[in-house]
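Why does residue order matter? Because the sequence determines the fold. Keep that principle in mind as you read this record.
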Amino acid sequence: MHYKNKIPIFFAVDDGYIPFLSVSIVGLKKNCSKDNLYLLKVLYNNISDYNIKKIKKQETENIRIEFINVTNHMEKISGKLYTRDYYSKSTYFRLFIADLFPEFNKALYLDSDIAILSDIANLYNIDIGDNLVGAAPDGVIRTTAEFQEYAEKVVGVNDYKNYFNAGILIMNLREMRKCDFQDKFVYLLDTIKFKVAQDQDYLNRICKGRVKIISDSWDKMPFKELQNGEPINLVHYNLSLKPWHYDGILYEEYFWNFAKETEYYDEILSMKKNYTDEEKDKDKEAYEGLVKLAVIEAGCVGDDRNKR
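Structure:
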C-alpha cells in the first residue's frame, strides 16, 4: 500500500516503563490515519523478550514496531551519564537518534508517560524550519519560580518561557547532524553537569536559539494552572503526577481508558494498589529536594539579565 507519509516515532524505555508504552500505543492507534505509516522505534538496553513480544502484538498494517538495542552505542559514555530519583539512563537515548538513524531527516521523540488524544501525524507535520527541535514550554518551569530562575541563570535560556520540555520533541535530524549535535553533547558531558533536569537541560543549552516553540496542547501536563480551554492533543504525566500511583490526577481518565485496552491493565492496577505511603513521601521529598537543588545551582552563578 502507498502511504501519504512515513512517520518515524522514537520511544526510549526499559522493562519498568513497558506497561505505559503499551498505553501510549493504544492512544496512537485510536487516533492514527490510515493514510500514514507510523514507524515506532523503541530504543532500549534492558527489556525482556516476553515484553517485546507483547508490545509487538499491538502492531497493525500501518503501525510497525521495532525494538532497537542501543547498549553497545551507549557503553562509550555510560559512566558519564548522571541520573536521579526514578530516572534511568534511557532518558539520554534521544540525544543519539540523529547519528544512529541517518536514514531519517525528521522524527518525533515521545516519552512513554503520555496519553495521545489526536493524530500524532499532526505534530510531526508542524513546520519547524531549520530549527533543531520543536517543543512545548515546560509546564513545571512555568508553574515554579525557583525553576524559572534556574532555567535562565544556570541553563542560560533568554526567557524561562522558552525553556522546553524534552519529553515531546519534533527533531530536525538533518540539522542536528549538520551541527554535530552528538559531539557537542558528549563535550558538554565533560565540562558541565546539569543536575536538575539532566538531558533536558543539555538539550535546552545546545538548541538555544534554534527552537520552534509549539502549543502546549501537544505536551499538556496535569497542572490546573495551565488549563486554558483549548483542545488537548497529548497529555504528559510528568514528574510524579502519575495516575498509576495517585488518585485525582488531572486528565487521569484518558490514561485509564487506554490502559483498560492493554494486556498490562491488571499489572498497572496492582502498581497503584501497592504504591505505599513511604513511596509517596519519597516522591514529595524528591520534588522538594529538586526545588532546593535548583535554588542552590542558581545561587552559584552570576546574574546579568538586567543588562540584556
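Residues 42 and 67 are 5 Å apart (CA to CA).
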